[in-house]
Amino acid sequence: MATATRKKPAARKTAAGKSPARKSTARKTGGRASSRAAPGDAIAMLKADHKKVSALFDQFEKTRSPAKKKEIVATICQELTVHTTLEEEIFYPEVKAAMKDKELVPEAKVEHASVKDLIAQVEGREPDGEDYDAKVKVMGEFVKHHVKEEQNEMFPKAKKTRLDFVALGERMTQRKQELMASA
Ligand SMILES: [Fe+2]
Ligand SMILES: [Fe+2]
């Protein structure tokens, strides 16, 4: 959703088609292997991840081949693991403090725990039938619900604070590169 709105001079097109860095804060973070994590607004970055994962769940639904299913699920698990880590390590603590929040972030963390539980149940497993498919489907539904709450409640509230989302995005981009490299 975030992507279509900002179409400034695309300094670099990212793999996930996410919005280009809003300000070219002349940092070198966007170089080399970082094609999937251009520096930019933290919220745009998270929304781009949401979009990517949602497309992967849609792809899973349409796939019959077990090998392809396994491949899609491996990507989903990696993307979600990195994404939830970024939120829990960097984004959530910052917005929680800025919003003086006692509800949205704690609830989001509980939801992450449920998603991680499902990740553990399918990651690396063979797609061996209806139970596997059901777990992936439920995971998709959990994620969809969670994303809706983030995008409809948490992010709009966070945007009203004075947080520097560009700086936050830079921190997250850097951390994302580390996490992807070790994933
Ligand atoms: Fe998220
Ligand atoms: Fe989240």
Short description:
The protein has 183 residues and is mostly helical. Helix content is 69%, strand content 0%.
Structure description:
The protein has 183 residues and is mainly α. It has one domain (42-182): nmb1532 protein domain like (Four Helix Bundle (Hemerythrin (Met), subunit A), Up-down Bundle), CATH 1.20.120.520. The protein has six helices and no strands. The chain has helices at residues 2-5, 42-62, 66-99, 104-122, 130-159, 165-182. It is elongated. The relative contact order is 0.17. The site of one fe (ii) ion (FE2) has 6 residues, from helix 3, helix 4 and helix 5.
The CATH level-2 architecture is identified as Up-down Bundle
Q: How do the helices and strands follow one another from N- to C-terminus?
A: HHHHHH
**Largest sheet entry:** none
- Total number of helices: 6
- The CATH class is identified as Mainly Alpha
Give a list of the ligands: fe (ii) ion
Strand elements, count: 0
Q: Judging from the principal axes of the Cα atoms, what is the shape?
A: elongated
Helix content: 55-70%
Within CATH, the superfamily carries the name: nmb1532 protein domain like
CATH fold field value: Four Helix Bundle (Hemerythrin (Met), subunit A)
Report low-confidence residues grouped into runs of 5 or more.
1-38
Terminal CA distance: 27 Å
Share in β-strands: under 5%
Structural class: mainly alpha
The quaternary organization reads as single chain
Give the domain tally.
1
